[in-house]
């Protein structure tokens, strides 16, 4: 059973909705452990104190802030709990904004918002209202000793919450967005638009998968059997010299290519069953 990461109240106006948050996704990938080259033992990263020259238990760990080089001010869990803002228990909606106005660049982590039994009606009222108005709710939320600005949006008859980066956390890259006085011909734009339309389709996440993970699993299987794995083919690319010619050829290749049949969604239960079967 999934474990909730936060429990409290979502409020707007005088309406309060008891809710729980659940992580909306997690990455699944083949992970490799770090081993000692000599004996192939798995390396660990223990809690080690270089001053006392010994391992320490978690009960001996305290939190501290380094205000000068090697100088720390210490804090207990109780002291940190005292400064927790109201948003650690109550997520108050501060305003509603057009969902289209929220730059996805600010989105950090996604969570499912699930109502408690007593708040189901008010929850559905908010879901339906946001869905029909194309608005998102902006609120404050404190968890894991950090206060977040969050955006809540309707999705699949429920609410999805996204923690958001603060503006000062968005990195600035000097070269980003620089056009350097590049001039585009109208014909080039038209051909590029035709190419985009030829590649256009509905977003179907089930069409995409991690090829690197597939190859990593194949590599593991081959190594266990003492076999070699062929190298993945790598395309040979070069800078485009004639942009117009490249666009025309891309469009011609696309028009000549057979259309792919629509991808059918695989039920989760069937997908899991298939995975278990392939493992054996």
A few lines on this structure:
The protein is α+β, with helices and mostly antiparallel strands and 280 residues long.
Q: What descriptive keywords fit this protein?
A:
Ku70, Chain: A, Domain 2, two-stranded antiparallel ribbon, 6 helices, extended, disordered C terminus
* CATH class descriptor name of the domain at 6-25 and 83-167: Mainly Beta
How much strand? Answer: 25-35%
Mean pLDDT: 84
Count of helical segments? Answer: 6
Strand order of the largest sheet: 1-2-8-11-10-9-7
Shape: extended
Radius of gyration: 26 Å
Structural features, described:
Helices cover 26% and strands 26% of the residues. The protein has six helices and eleven strands. It has a seven-stranded mixed beta barrel. Strands 3-4 form a two-stranded antiparallel ribbon. Helix 3 runs parallel beside helix 5.
Write the layout of secondary structure elements.
Layout: E1 6-12, E2 15-23, E3 48-49, E4 54-55, E5 63-68, E6 71-75, H1 77-82, E7 90-98, E8 107-115, H2 120-133, E9 135-142, E10 147-155, E11 158-164, H3 186-198, H4 211-224, H5 243-256, H6 268-279
């Amino acid at each position: 059973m999934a474990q909730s990461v936060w429990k409290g109240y979502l409020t707007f106006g005088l309406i309060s909705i008891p809710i729980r948050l659940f992580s909306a996704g997690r990455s699944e990938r083949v992970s490799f452990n770090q081993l000692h080259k000599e004996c192939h033992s798995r390396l660990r990263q223990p809690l080690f104190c270089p001053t006392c020259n010994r391992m320490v238990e978690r009960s001996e760990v305290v939190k501290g802030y380094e205000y000068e080089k090697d100088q720390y001010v210490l804090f207990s869990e109780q002291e940190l709990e005292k400064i927790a803002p109201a948003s650690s228990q109550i997520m108050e909606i501060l305003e509603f904004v057009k969902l289209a106005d929220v730059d996805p660049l600010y989105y950090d982590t996604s969570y499912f918002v699930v109502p408690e039994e007593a708040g189901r009606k008010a929850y559905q009222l908010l879901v339906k209202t946001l869905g029909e108005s194309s608005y998102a709710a902006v609120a404050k939320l404190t968890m894991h000793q950090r206060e977040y600005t969050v955006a809540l949006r309707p999705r699949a008859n429920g609410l999805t919450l996204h923690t958001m980066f603060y503006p000062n956390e968005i990195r600035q890259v000097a070269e980003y967005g620089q056009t350097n006085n590049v001039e585009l011909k109208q014909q080039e734009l038209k051909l590029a638009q035709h190419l985009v339309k030829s590649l256009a389709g509905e977003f179907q996440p089930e069409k995409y998968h991690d090829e690197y993970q597939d190859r990593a699993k194949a590599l593991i299987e081959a190594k266990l059997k003492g076999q070699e794995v062929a190298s993945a083919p790598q395309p040979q690319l070069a800078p485009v010299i004639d942009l117009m010619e490249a666009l025309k050829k891309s469009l011609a290749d696309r028009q000549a290519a057979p259309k792919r049949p629509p991808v059918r969604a695989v039920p989760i239960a069937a997908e899991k069953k298939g995975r278990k079967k392939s493992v054996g």
